[in-house]
């Protein structure tokens, strides 16, 4: 075999790579002799992915429901991946910030338009039957979505508005978690007792949430924005991207979810309750909970009319 200059250069770089980690280059090169060529189905893990859909009923549209939510969770993972790049960028620039944030917004745009699958892609009669087998599980229990919220903004903006005046950056994380806006959907309004839905959710993810809260306390999207030079904070493209993300996540996507839920839960073919038993209309509607990641980027009029349907 004739080794040309390009091949020699590549081999030299490979050798330097393995020397840097105290490995024998020859061993790794010989390993290539026995490795199998990659295929699409191995790389994507297609067989594993397509065997993750397990129905609990015999109703065909339940499969649509399962796959739709699994796609959502994959998109949530993509969103968290992009957000982490912003939060951990060593030399964050407005261009990088804007580009990655628009990626995240496009993922949420996909989530928003995908509600047509939920709104028009299932028979109401089938949904109202198989949903009873899901109780007390609920989309409320998407841990990744909660982590997206935590990585987006200061915790005070996620606190139930009734308790914001009593909580600040010195508040213990566990106390802050117990007063997140979504907690209200899992508590008895009179006694304050947590529902089974919420207790199980916290049993599974409470430690992970507190870890996420600590990790992103100073590197969430809003904090990273405020750490930029003042001139960069006024960059029109970045401000536009921040506002677009905030509006897309906290109004457009939420309203898409709410309107899809209305079609089925308000169809008159069930008890009108969410599978987890929450007061879903008030919990989901942005007008009530005022989920706003970057309130400083909105005018007083925009804040006053937040979530009001036109």
Automatic annotation (TrEMBL):
Please give the organism: Flavobacterium laiguense
Q: What is this protein called?
A: Tryptophan 2,3-dioxygenase
Q: Name one GO molecular function term.
A: metal ion binding
Per the record, the domain of life is Bacteria
| Gene Ontology biological-process annotations | L-tryptophan catabolic process to acetyl-CoA; L-tryptophan catabolic process to kynurenine
Q: Does the keyword Signal apply?
A: no
**Quick check: keyword Oxidoreductase in the entry?**
yes
Keywords, A to Z?
Dioxygenase, Oxidoreductase
Which InterPro entries did the record assign?
Trp/Indoleamine_2_3_dOase-like, Trp_2_3_dOase
